[in-house]
Amino acid sequence: MESNPVLLESKSSPINLLNEMQQLRLLGHLCDVTVSVEYQGVRAEFPAHKAVLAATSKFFKEVFLNEKPVDGPRSNVFLNEVQVADFASFLEFVYTARVEVEEDRVQRMLEIAEKLKCLDLSETCFQLKKQMLESVLLELQNFSESQNSEEESAAQPSVAPAAEAERDPLASPASRPGRGASPEGPAAKSKEK
């Protein structure tokens, strides 16, 4: 008697794996690469795991697959013109699938994602920029609509002058002398006939 195959799938395993890799990185355990970044004289070194970097960045994958074996257990990668804070955020993202940055750094994170060929971070930044733009456009639209409604209400004549004109026919502009009507008004025309 044959048994039907069943699927054993963990929803928490990917998150647990990332969390454990992040802890190993933060403690410096099993790290086999050091990434040195430098920008305008500010330099920092970041221990990391080749497998994680290669799996998340085509740039690092190309570097590691093309490197020649070295004598030591750890290799080094040098990145110029990458800000320390941006690379630290990049590492946090690739090890945790999330990172918190200031709004004004989103563009820089998109640029580092493109430089390091990290599709997940690039898509995440692009989506966030799109949401931010839509939010600004919605605010502008709401502001424009409120301005238009204020202008329309200011442009509409008030009810009081129109009511006065109905009560006093001589106060209406058409019945005043010099406005195209005779001084005698409508009664004078009927006498002419």
From TrEMBL:
The Gene Ontology terms for molecular function here are:
DNA-binding transcription factor activity, RNA polymerase II-specific; RNA polymerase II cis-regulatory region sequence-specific DNA binding; zinc ion binding
Which CDD domains does the record cross-reference, listed alphabetically? BTB_POZ_ZBTB23_GZF1
Per the record, which residues fall in region Disordered? 146-193
* The UniProt record lists the keyword Transcription regulation: yes
Question: Out of the domains of life, which is the source?
Answer: Eukaryota
Domain (BTB): residue spans on this chain? 31-103
* Key words of the record: DNA-binding, Metal-binding, Nucleus, Repeat, Transcription, Transcription regulation, Zinc, Zinc-finger
* UniProt subcellular location: Nucleus
Gene Ontology annotations for the cellular component aspect, listed alphabetically: nucleus
Could you tell me which SUPFAM superfamilies the record lists for this protein? POZ domain (SSF54695)
Q: Where mainly located?
A: nucleus
| Extent of Low complexity compositional bias | 154-163
Q: What is this protein called?
A: GZF1 protein
Per the UniProt record, the source organism is Eulacestoma nigropectus (wattled ploughbill)
Taxon lineage: Eukaryota, Metazoa, Chordata, Craniata, Vertebrata
- The encoding gene is Gzf1_0
